[in-house]
Design brief:
The protein has helices spanning about 1-5, 15-20, 35-55, 60-85, 95-120, 125-150, 160-170, 180-215. By secondary structure, it is mainly alpha-helical. It has a domain at about 125-155 and about 175-215. It is elongated. The two termini are about 30 Å apart. The model is unreliable at about 1-5 (pLDDT under 50).
Length: about 220
């Protein structure tokens, strides 16, 4: 009996996260920020970084011009891919959005309830321990997030647009960006990335807290 208790699995956040990651996605789920958009913006940021630094640090040579052209092409292609991936596949209407959202809720509800039942299979003291700790971390995250990023997450893609404006507002060839412009561009991009990352963590903590509180009730 003692050996069976020792071999029984322990509830951990890693195990809970693995269960959440294994959940199927709803066919009508319209991801706010799809993977193609993430890859596109990453490619655009990389192209902008290489292009700006090459024309700033490398000598005025034909090779520098080629590197700058390639970097600019990568940047524009990344922005184009991100923009196209964010275009809705069908013309949105209020009726369609309400229906799609209702279908998504109907699809997600059984999986949500199954997760709660999976949690209830673990001892109550383990569930309470994780629930208390995740509530504490969630409150800390809500206090810390405004200190890190302010309200930048409410601006949407505006920081990316501002970064592109700073890069191209006085565009000439070959470009000669100042260090202040380069710093501002990548400060905006880094702040936006940091904000999205922190919000993603906060939403996952909120989901942990909701599931564990229901599993205890």
């Amino acid at each position: 009996m003692e050996q069976q208790d020792m071999e029984s699995p322990t509830l951990t956040f890693s195990a809970l996260d693995a269960q959440i990651q294994a959940l199927p996605e709803s066919p009508s789920d319209n991801t706010i920020f799809p993977k193609k958009a993430k890859w596109g913006l990453s490619a655009a940021a990389f192209g902008a970084l290489i292009g700006l630094l090459s024309v700033k640090l490398l000598p005025n040579h034909a090779t520098t011009v080629v590197i700058a052209y390639i970097s600019l092409t990568v940047e524009m292609a990344g922005v184009l891919v991100a923009g196209i991936s964010l275009i809705p596949t069908k013309w949105p209407t209020f009726a369609n959005e309400r229906r799609d959202f209702a279908e998504q809720l109907d699809f997600d509800l059984p999986h949500h309830l199954a997760l709660v039942e999976w949690l209830r299979a673990f001892p109550l003291d383990e569930r309470e321990t994780l629930s208390e700790f995740v509530s504490y971390r969630h409150e800390r995250m809500k206090e810390k997030l405004p200190m890190l990023t302010g309200s930048i997450e409410k601006l949407g893609a505006l920081p990316i647009v501002v970064a592109l404006y700073l890069q191209f507002k006085d565009m000439q060839w070959p470009p000669h960006p100042g260090w202040i412009e380069i710093f501002l561009i990548f400060a905006l991009i880094f702040g936006y990335w940091l904000s999205v990352r922190q919000i993603n963590i906060r939403l996952r903590l909120q989901l942990y807290e909701t599931l564990l509180s229901k599993a205890i009730a």
